[in-house]
Amino acid sequence: MSTLSLDASTSHTPPGRLARQLGHASLLPFVAGAVFIWLLSGRVQPEPFIFLVGALTSYAALVIAFLGGLPWGLAVRVRPEDADHELVQRTLWTGLIRLLTAWIAVSMPPHAGLVVLGALLIAGYLIDRRLYPLLGAGGWLTLRFRLTIVASLSCFLAAAQL
Fold first, then answer.
1. Nearest to 131 by CA among 82, 103, 93
2. pLDDT value at residue 5
3. Comparing 24 with 45, which gets the higher pLDDT?
4. pLDDT tens digits, residue range 121-145?
5. Is residue 120 a contact partner of residue 99, using CB atoms and an 8 Å limit?
6. Contact 124, 64 (CB under 8 A)
7. What is residue 14's three-state secondary structure?
């Protein structure tokens, strides 16, 4: 594969303090959703419980769509004459496939959809583990790994209670 001509001095810089803080804050809906699903299952009226499950499912799908869009943003920074066209095409396709799969998961019964979303978070990380270094964002993978573990575990635990 060819080098994509990104500035080598910043291409693998890890995220700054604010990005780490916001990344960790983004886990609050995952963790709170899973905890509340476990605590409230069978103890509240169906309507608020269904709302809570839908909120967690929707949030997970939105995060997956966001994460699928990040490589798109990195890929569009590459000048066409410097681009590894196969890498750019693969990046664009995988982002779209993540979005469509998350959309399908939201349409599924929540006990199944949350499992698909948790698996999609992990699969997205595994894909990005290969893409980010090639797109100049390898320094973000440690944070991304930690966030993926907590978010996917939250989806799996919530699904287990449904």
1. 93
2. 46
3. 24
4. 999 999 999 999 988 899 999 999 9
5. no
6. yes
7. coil
User: Hey, how many other C-beta atoms are within 10 angstroms of the C-beta on 60?
Assistant: 28
Confidence of residue 9 (pLDDT cuts 50, 70, 90): very low
Write down how long the chain is: 162
Residue 158 one-letter amino acid? A
At 81, is the pLDDT very low, low, confident or very high (cuts 50, 70, 90)? low
Helices assigned H by DSSP within the chain: 17-25, 28-40, 46-75, 85-107, 110-135, 141-161
Helix axes of 46-75 and 28-40: crossing angle, nearest 10 degrees: 160
Two tokens, residue 12? 């693998």
Residue 116: which residues within 8 A CB-CB, separation 6 or more? Answer: 101, 104, 105, 108
Which tokens sit at 43?
């103890």
Burial class for 18, CB neighbours closer than 10 Å (0-12, 13-18, 19+): exposed
Mean pLDDT of the chain: 90
